[in-house]
Each structure stands twice: as structure tokens, then as C-alpha cells.
Amino acid sequence: MGGDLLPGRDWPGKPAGTLAFVDVGVAGVTVPTTGIGSWPGTDFAEAVRQTFGLWDLPYLPELPARGPGADMIGRTLALLDGFAFERSPFGWQVADRPGRDQRRAAALLRDDLDVLAEVGDGYSGRLKISLAGPWTLMASVDLARGGRMLGDHGARRDMVAMVGRAIEEFAAALVGRVPGAVPQIQLDEPLLGAVAAGGIRTESGLHRYRSVTADELRSGLRDLVSVTESTTTPLAIHSCAAAPWSLLTEAGVGALALDAGVATSRVDLDAVANHVDHGGTLWLGILDTRPGIGLPTVDALVRRAESYLKPLELGRALLGRLALTPACGLASNPDPAGAAQRLRAAAPLVAERLAG
Questions:
Q1: Distance, CA of 10 to CA of 7 (rounded, Å)
Q2: Alpha-carbon Rg of the chain, whole angstroms?
């Protein structure tokens, strides 16, 4: 598990002002930064140029403002082989054949990968792609007969398998478009904690779906980790909500991506420290992405990182195993470039504190 997160080197046509990547262990190494997924607006080509120019670990962004199929759920459903989906007035549901919105999602993804190939021409190094994780999908998508997929054991099993195949397909498509890319898979699982705790409500709102057992979650996670071990770099799982972090580590997940304002209990902190102790990496979301929250100063970001990391008592052991991120996607942020720049400015200061 784990390994350094500094993803590569310069490439032809690299946007001006982008810092060169370095290898862990080189004097002056810093803490890298990456975004989480979503980006505001509808200009996809510009969004891709921004992600290459602003982050140490670039990624294929999601622009949900483009409509159904452009968000993380729609993009992932476009990749799932074995189920067809369509949009209803209540959201996504299983269908007999792919609906218009699923077909649109597939077309958008093909176009997005073509744009990525153009912007990333000549790039070499890690390149992140993200999908909605299977448990968030189960809790978000209805069966054709009604009720969430979460309530059907067979559907849950099938969804984990389909996401595993989607990871393989997505990674292959990425390398086909950008041959020098090393795929980094991020699964977004904002509902994983609620699934594990029995917190997902039924459609009536009067009841909740049964919690998915730790054994079933662990088994599914290990299957997904196995896929990434054979096709990509270690799997990263992101949640800006509560999540069973210890369970993710036990399953072999390589990177925990979390909101520093949420994963704050002693249990959470112990789980994160144990994860790093066992070779995992931490993507620490220190920039608040909630609507209406102003852009923090660099000093405020450094203080927030320090306040979270100090109780872990890991010090220099975090160097090479820590990245800084926004807490969640930046789709609602009025100045995403400014947010990325603040994180990039905070990163070397955090590294200095750790080294000292």
C-alpha cells in the first residue's frame, strides 16, 4: 500500500507556473496537493487545463453543472457493464435498456477523455480518475421494481463486481488516451458510513435500510483493492462524511481521503494513524468547500493541517504519505483556482512543520 504521491515530471506544453514534480527523498520535498473531483462551470477543456496547471496530482474533473450524467453518479453509471439505467423524476433507476441520460453520460465521458488526451499530450506520471463507489451507488439508485439497490443482496454483490470492471475499463481508456499516464483510482463514497451504520432511509422516510455488515464491506473492498493492484496504483477512497476508516485500512485501501472537519473523533484519529503506520497514505481535506464559506488564508490552512496532524503523533513519518486536498469537490466554489493556489502555498509550510 501507499508510496509517494508526487506523480511525475514536466511534460511538453505544461502550463506556465506549474511547479515541477520531485521524488520523495529529494532535498526540499514538499507535501503534494490534489483536487477531489468536481469543478464549477461547463467549459470542460478549461477545467482540465486548470487541473493540470494547479495540482501536483492532476485529474479528470467532473462538471455537474452540465446536467444529468456529468456528475459522479452519472459518469460511473455510464461505465457499468451489466445494468442499464434511466432517469426518473426521483433520480436514477435500473431499466431494461439504457435510457437517454445514461447514453448522454457515456457520450460525455468519451468526449471528456478526448479532451484529456489533447490537454495531457506528452504527460507522464500519475493521473487521477474518480468514480462513485459501489456503496454510494447502491444507496442512490433504485431498482426497477422500486426501493434502493442497497436493499437487495444480489444487487449489492453485482454492483461491487461492476464497479471493479468499470475501474479496469476506465484505467484502460485513460492509458489509451494518455499513454504516459499511471492511473490513480479514487472512489467517492460519501454514503459509505451511513450504509455501514444503517442510516439510509427508505423512500417513505419512515424506515431505514439494514446496515451492511463489516464482513460484507470488507470482502467487497478487498475485491476492489485487488483490481487496482493489478491495473493501477493503490486505491484511494474519499468521503467527506463519516466512514469506517479502520475497515478501509483492514481491506488494504492505499489512501484515505477525508474531511479534516469530520474525521475528528479519537477512534477516527487512531484509525488514520494506524493506516499511515501500516504504509498507507492520507489525503487530508483541509479546505472547507461548503457554499458560502470564504477562501481561507494560507496561514489558516497550515494551522488547520497542524491541528489535525499533531494528535496523530507521526511527525516526519507523514512526509511522503500525506497530500493536501479540499474537503470535497469544488463545484460550488466561486474561486476554485484560488483554492488550489492557497493549498499549493500551504503545502511546503506544512512540510516544514513536519520536518521540524
A1: 10
A2: 19
Q: For residue 211, give Cα distances in angstroms to 12, 135, 191, 199, 225.
A: 50, 11, 12, 7, 22
Q: Which residue is listed with cell 426521483?
A: 90
Could you read off the pLDDT tens digit of each residue along the chain, which spans 356 residues?
Answer: 333 333 333 333 333 222 233 333 334 557 999 999 999 999 999 999 999 999 999 999 999 999 989 999 999 999 998 889 999 988 999 999 999 999 999 999 999 999 999 999 999 999 999 999 999 999 999 999 999 999 999 999 999 999 999 999 999 999 999 999 999 999 999 999 999 999 999 988 889 999 999 999 999 999 999 999 877 789 999 999 999 999 999 999 999 999 999 999 999 999 999 999 999 999 999 999 998 888 999 999 999 999 999 999 999 999 999 999 999 999 999 999 999 999 999 999 999 999 98
Assess contact for 189 and 237: CB atoms under 8 A.
yes
Terminal C-alpha separation, the chain: 26
Say how far apart CA 61 and CA 165 lie, in whole Å: 21
User: Is the distance from CB of 88 to CB of 81 less than 8 angstroms?
Assistant: no
Q: Which of 283, 290, 277 is nearest to 237 (CA)?
A: 283
Calpha distance 8→23 (Å, rounded): 8
What does DSSP say about strands 236-239 and 181-188: parallel, antiparallel, or unpaired?
parallel
